[in-house]
Structure formats: structure tokens, C-alpha cells
């Protein structure tokens, strides 16, 4: 006997939905298939199937710096060569 199914409604932006739907279709899956697989993994593992972490202080500082650079439209390096030279350091 099959269990009764229930509807699950979620909200997401249209671009994410469109891109994810296309990627899933290329894998032969529907969005509903993907959600069912996600939920089955959560049940089987008793955990979320992706590693979720709270960023440490160094990561938070780097994220804040990146946000600040983007907001100012500023860069640490004059050009790509300066960036590569710093990386080779």
C-alpha cells in the first residue's frame, strides 16, 4: 500500500529554480525527484548531506573584506600581474 503524498511548497528566486531545473533535467531528474532524494538522504544519514559550518573569525574577516571591496568597487592589486606576483610571493 502506498502512503498518501503531501505537497511541499518552497520559495526561491526564479533564476535559481530555472538553472537547477535544467541541471537536474540533464541528470534525468525532476525537481520533485531531487527533493525526495534529499529527504531520503536526511532520513538515512540523520544529517544534512552537505557539510555546513559557521565561518571562523579569519573566514568572517575575509568575507567582510571581500564585501567591502565589492561595495567600494576597489581592488588590492593594480592588475593581474600584480596579483600573480603576490601569489608567487
Plain-language structure description:
The protein is mainly α and 89 residues long. It has two domains: 14-45, no CATH class; 57-88. 60% of the residues lie in helices and 0% in strands. The chain is elongated and about 65 Å long. 0% of the residues are buried.
Structural class: mainly alpha
What's the helical proportion of residues? 55-70%
Q: Let me know the largest β-sheet.
A: none
- SSE series: HHHH
Overall, the morphology is elongated
Low-confidence parts: none
Number of discrete helical segments? 4
- Compute the CA-based radius of gyration: 21 Å
**What is the averaged pLDDT score?**
90
Strand tally, please?
0
Strand content: under 5%
Work out the count of structural domains.
Answer: 2
N-C termini distance: 66 Å
Give me the secondary-structure topology:
Blueprint: H1 14-26, H2 31-45, H3 57-72, H4 80-88
Looking at this protein, list some descriptive labels.
mainly alpha; elongated; 4 helices; 0% strand; 89 residues; 60% helix; single chain
Amino acid at each position: 500500500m502506498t502512503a498518501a503524498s503531501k505537497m511541499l511548497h518552497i520559495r526561491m528566486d526564479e533564476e535559481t529554480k530555472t538553472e537547477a531545473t535544467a541541471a537536474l533535467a540533464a541528470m534525468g531528474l525532476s525537481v520533485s525527484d531531487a527533493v525526495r532524494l534529499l529527504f531520503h538522504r536526511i532520513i538515512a544519514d540523520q544529517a544534512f548531506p552537505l557539510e555546513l559550518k559557521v565561518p571562523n573569525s579569519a573566514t568572517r574577516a575575509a568575507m567582510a573584506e571581500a564585501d567591502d571591496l565589492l561595495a567600494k568597487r576597489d581592488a588590492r592589486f593594480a592588475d593581474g600581474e600584480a596579483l600573480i606576483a603576490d601569489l608567487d610571493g
